[in-house]
Each structure stands twice: as structure tokens, then as C-alpha cells.
Predict the 3D structure of the following.
Amino acid sequence: MVTLLINYNNRSPKTESALPAAMFSRSNVSMWSVLKKCIGMELSKITMPVIFNEPLSFLQRLTEYMEHTYLIHKAMIVGGIPLLGFRWVSEQVSHHPPVSAFHAEGIKSDFRFHGSIYPKLKFWGKSVEAEPRGIITLELPLHNEAYTWTNPTCCVHNIIMGQLWIEQYGNVEIINHKTGERCCLTFKPCGIFGKELHKVEGYILDKSKRKICALYGKWTECLYAVDPAIFDAHRKSDTKRSEKDRKGSTQSNNADEMPPPEAETVQVIPGSELIWRISPRPDNSGKVCGIFQHLSSHTLMPSMPSSSQVCGSDCSDR
């Protein structure tokens, strides 16, 4: 169990800013020396080196959902004063199958965010695919609105050897149950040439399914909004250009071996408005399991209430 109380206006000086130990290099372990001993064994009997673990529980990792809570606070400003901070509780409610549940709310009850995660895992040799199951809900009581959605499929590549990288793909539909409006997004798979890697695009539709706004960008970088007519025209011309490039190219890459791009690669359409940009990682991110700034400054080793106020199973108190 993980319990958090985070108030951005009153940060505790006792909150630690780093993991108690740095991450080990996986290059120090020969994966083949481990696997060759496991040929013919049941998956449940295979013991992996402890170096492949990280000093964070999955429940603590779930707090990454709150990385961009400031966007909710920005939308919920009351009387010119932003309502900053939230409470969080998460629990492993089932182990077979594994199901994790969480609930968060603003410290002024300006929002409620809750859901459950029970992914279906598929092993493809060099990669692991996690098919999401479970509905995520965001409630805004001041507007009497509730939004629901499910996460896209996530695939982790090069789990045995090579550079680890992640892609997400599939369709996500975010529904406003008060107005009937919905946002239909497509997370694009990497593809053979890698041009679609991390790309996201879609539309906001009213209850009559009329396009109100178009959204595009990359979930690893930024997201833009633009008029749907302008977006459709740009996408049509971009499709023709991509077909010409595909015919003139003989490149063939293995998707698992394709490293993620480092530079920003989103082509901005004229007339677009930037609505979100990812927060930079901490300087020591590579040494502490690739955590985000939000986790590093608040939720790794949070300042907790006294032991009498916290459930004995809370893993952050271990």
C-alpha cells in the first residue's frame, strides 16, 4: 500500500530527493549465463538477478499518473488562486491475477482521480507487451463532470539485451459523460521505418460526432491543438509525401533494434496551439531508474504521518 499527501504550497524539508541507492549497470550481468540454466524450466521457477529490480514498488510507480496534475489545477483555478496538492492512496487488491487500484483527490476536493490496473502480458521473445485492462476515471466536482478512458497498449523492447525502449499504440477514447463530448486519440506504432514512433493524433468530437478540434504530437514530447480542417489538409499532403519517400527507400530495420529519437521531431502545423509539453527529467534520472521530476522530489520517500495514522502494509514505510 502507498499513501501520500502532497502539498506544493507547503513542502516538507524532510522529504528526500533521491533513492537511497543508485541504479546498477545491467551490462555487468551476462543475460545468457542466466538463461542457459533455465532451458526447459517453468517460468515460475526462473530466478532473475536482483540487479534487474529497482528500489520502487509498482504502486509507487503508479504515482507517475500525477506527473501533470498541474494541468488539472490550471483548469480548476478558483478566485484566481490555483488549488495545488493532492492526496493519494494505492493498494494491490489482488495478486493472482495482479490487480492494482488507486484513488487520488485534490487537497481542496477540486478533483478525484481513480481506477484499477490489471494488464494482460504477452512475451514475444525480445519484447513484452502489456494490454491494458481497467477504466480510469477523472471527476471534476465543481463542474459536475466525469471523464473515463482506458490506456493504450504498451510494449517494452530489448528486454534481454540492447537498449531498452518503449512504445505505446492503440486507440484511446476519453468520454465526457456530462456533455457527451469525446476525444478519440490514436497512438501510432513504430512501423518499419520508425517515422510514426511515439506519434499521437486524433479529434475532439461533440455529441453529434462533429469535429471540434484536432490534436497531434508525441506522447514523449508535446501535444498541439489545431483546427480540424487545417489538420486534415496537412495530413493529406503529408501522406502523399510519405508514400514517395517509402517508394524511394530500401531501408529495412528491425523494430526491436530501433533506438528512440532524442531530439524533438514534431512538425508544427501553422495555426497550432501548444497545449502540453513534457517536463524535463532530473539530471540524475539515468542513475535512479529513469524517474521523473515529480517522483524524485516528492514520492520516492515521502514525509509520512505518524505510524499510527498509516496502514501497517504501507510499502513507503519499509
